[in-house]
Design goal:
elongated, 2 domains, four-stranded antiparallel β-sheet, 11 strands, Rieske Iron-sulfur Protein, 384 residues, alpha+beta, binds FE2/S2 (inorganic) cluster
Length: 384
Amino acid sequence: MSSTQPPATEAITDRAGEAVRVAVLLPLRLFLGITYLYAGAVKLLDPHFLVAGDPFSVVAQMEGYARSSPLGGLITATLPMATTIGLLIALAELAIGLGLLSGLAYRLAAVAGFALSILFWLVASWSVMPYFFSPDLPYAAGFLTLALAGHGGRWVLGLARPKAAPDGPAPAGAPVSTLRRDLIGVGLLAVLTGLVAGLTSAAAALGKSRPSGPVPTTAPVTAVPATPAPTTAPATAAPATAAPASAAPVTPAPPTAAPPTAAPATPAAGLAGPRIGNVADFASRQGVAITVPFEAPFALGPGNPGIMVQLPDQRVVAFSAVCTHGRCTVALDPSTGSLLCPCHLGAFDPANHAAVVSGPPPLPLPEMTVAVDPATGDVHAIFG
Ligand code: FES
């Protein structure tokens, strides 16, 4: 069907329509561009993210994702190169953000953002239910919208589209010049990304807000007796008959041997289960990683990670270390005393039954009842 409008009027109408479309999409473009630029920069600024062995590193994140993602086998296979993958993701996020904001390689950036969001959904937020609570799917939808719509020529750094003929087909040389323009755009975006990444890394090197690396071995140990802590704990804390062979019998300690505050973790009721650690472990690490004992009647299967913490009042507590949000592994943040999830920064309070302090986790961490053998300092899981 042919239009009844004169060609010039149609062109004006088309340009007006495109201007409206571009303007309507600008908030989405700005939000996604700024957010991805921020996400990439934060990863480079984080003194933990790229440090293998750090409980808040990308390696720890990927180990957690491997438990819940349908791509778990692939994630496990790529764990040896997790730090490199983390760096590439940070650079990709920078490039996507800069591409959207500057207009350089705009559609490529939008498509890459869509692909990365889908990957994040499959890897990082697959276990978030219902699906629309996953933050990555709305990002994917937003990137797809921008990829389909384009930028309309607005805010494109130095690479404005070649002037189209007012009417009629594009000039014969247009496809070639478009390809050249796109290649130049990709090159400029790569340079811009490298520049921003370099500046960000330099800023990270200058001012680290938290000590990098594993939990410092020089962590304060004043709360922990240098030797196993004999206490006045009730003898029922860990009946010798139920303890494994490695656990020494529970013997009432001489009353002067230890401060009365060095008490066992919990009221000692029930049977002593497997040994999961020793109070002396806290001398080198405040938050001690454990493995859920095979016999544990626990919310998690055997072999899952747990964490044992000594609180400032000397109590020893233990929890599942599997985050109730996306199943990443939490670790003790020495600076705050909370159990922190590296994936979306969910925080739990170990002094309050691992209640959620902040972040997206919906539930506290399951708690494991433990008791300290006053003779040996061994920490036992208590069942029953
Ligand atoms: S997995 Fe999301 S906060 Fe832990």
